[in-house]
Design goal:
With 253 residues, the protein is α/β, with parallel strands linked by helices. It has seven helices and nine strands. Bound molecules: 6-phosphogluconic acid.
């Protein structure tokens, strides 16, 4: 088993993982805002990043963030209304937005309540306009999770959205597990891989075997797992794992 690469950090539990992610979030915002007027971040859904969002709403971190200069986007969204329990926007609203004074014009959610192809087109236009002067780059930071099947955002193994090479946003017909079985909107690999930094947050024993595959199965030209295809062209990927998820990996790091 190879040593863990430097871009993989292991923390004793999900809380310690979230604390590290919160520190990195503040660091990324500070770094971006030294040379540009705003900080753009795409948020992940799921239970792992929710711990981070709750932390960022705490004064220990929220007081260190210039929320008026931070623009929040979503990496994916379920095709449900924003007040639906499955909404990724709704999860972030409860965990973070209701606690911090971020201007509403800085919150760019995917319209899960709208007809999916129209919502896709509208979000693509929003992103293209927001990053119009960024010379092909997209987000300063993308937060991602990883499902037990190796999916990330709503890019599931063997699905058409995973093969999208032009558009930044895709509609996902989602009829097989993992739940919820609702269609999705998702950033595509071109959008994710144009980011300056990607942080992938993975916690829990159920991820351990898949992570072993990710880090021991060489990523070939077209690696099978969606999360293996997160390879920013001019940016870096950082994996933040908890000990349960990392239990099948070499721990010498
Ligand atoms: C979603 C997420 C999804 C999530 C993974 C991991 O909409 O559900 O975008 O990609 O990040 O499924 O979820 P957990 O962190 O809850 O394991």
């Amino acid at each position: 088993m190879t040593d863990l690469p430097p871009e993989v950090q292991v923390y004793k539990n999900p809380e310690a993982l979230a604390q590290a992610a919160a520190r990195l979030f503040v660091q990324a915002a500070d770094q971006a805002l030294t040379c540009q007027p705003d900080f753009s971040v795409a948020l992940a859904g799921g239970s792992t990043p929710r711990v981070l969002y709750r932390l960022l709403s705490q004064p220990e971190y929220s007081c260190r963030l210039a929320w008026d200069k931070i623009h929040l986007f979503w990496g994916d969204e379920r095709c449900v209304p924003p007040n639906h329990p499955d909404s990724n926007y709704g999860m972030v609203k409860r965990a973070l937005l209701e606690q911090v004074g971020i201007p509403s014009q800085n919150i760019h959610r995917m319209a899960g309540e709208d007809e999916a192809s129209q919502a896709r087109s509208a979000y693509e236009t929003l992103l293209r306009n927001f990053f119009i002067s960024a010379a092909g780059k997209t987000f300063d930071l993308v937060l991602l999770g990883m499902g037990d099947d190796g999916h990330t955002a709503s890019l599931f193994p063997g699905t058409p959205a995973l093969e999208e090479t032009k558009h930044w946003v895709a509609v996902v017909e989602h009829t097989q597990p993992p739940l919820p079985l609702v269609n999705r909107l998702t950033l595509t690999l071109p959008a994710i891989n144009a980011a300056s930094q990607v942080i992938i947050l993975v916690a829990g024993e159920s991820k351990a075997d898949r992570l072993r595959q990710v880090f021991t199965q060489p990523a070939v030209d077209q690696p099978r797992l969606p999360v293996q295809r997160v390879q920013p062209t001019n940016g870096q990927v950082l994996w933040l794992l908890d000990a349960s998820a990392a239990q099948c990996l070499d721990r010498t790091a």
